[in-house]
Write a structure and sequence with these properties.
By secondary structure, this protein is α/β, with parallel strands linked by helices. It has two domains: 117 residues, Rossmann fold; 94 residues, Arc Repressor Mutant, subunit A (Orthogonal Bundle). It contains eight helices and twelve strands. The strands form three sheets. The protein has a five-stranded parallel beta sheet with strand order 2-1-3-4-5, sandwiched between helices. Helix 6 crosses helix 8. The two termini are 33 Å apart. Pfam families: Response_reg, Trans_reg_C.
Amino acid sequence: MYRILIVEDDMIIAKELEGALKQWGYEAKYVSEFNDVITDVVSFDPQLVLLDISLPFFNGYHWCSEIRKISKVPIIFISSMSDNMNIVMAMNMGGDDFISKPFDLNVIVAKIQALLRRTYSFNGTMNVIEHKGVVLNLNDTTIQYKDFKIELTKNEFKIIQILLENVGKAVCRDDIMTRLWESDSYIDDNTLTVNVTRLRKKLSEMGLSDFVKTKKGIGYMVE
């Protein structure tokens, strides 16, 4: 069953789309909080996104750009702003198709089916870990928070990955070093301390100064 996320602030249209897609056997969900759409994208992990242009807080172009930072999921713009300039803009921002409002539900379902057929192969699913707006991309070892995106070293990436996989739990230093050894990285207790310090410095530069906490006598954790 394909998951389809609807980013549309007109609730009548959003519910109509959700109902029609469910009748066709899709798992559909519409966004209700428009100040942080990317959180819904990460948590729902859709195989296709329907995206309006005119939205509260930030427009659809902004969210298309944010989605493209972490995923190649197909995006269909749906908008009454269907002049040539907006259609070209939508495609240039990373959209895969454009449907003008008002639309026929049969047409939109047919376009969705065609785009899903062309895409999967499953190149569009995301491979990320998200926590409190922090997105760790497992494909390219980058970490993103708000407008910041930075690259991590192999050890820094592994450390934060382990902590994010165990949110709310203290991970002991020995367990972290064992995981790092598995990736053929020579690391001892002092090397781990240096790597955690460098990781914290990078996180602090992104506005996450207290993201990785020390649990005395145990190790580290992310709450």
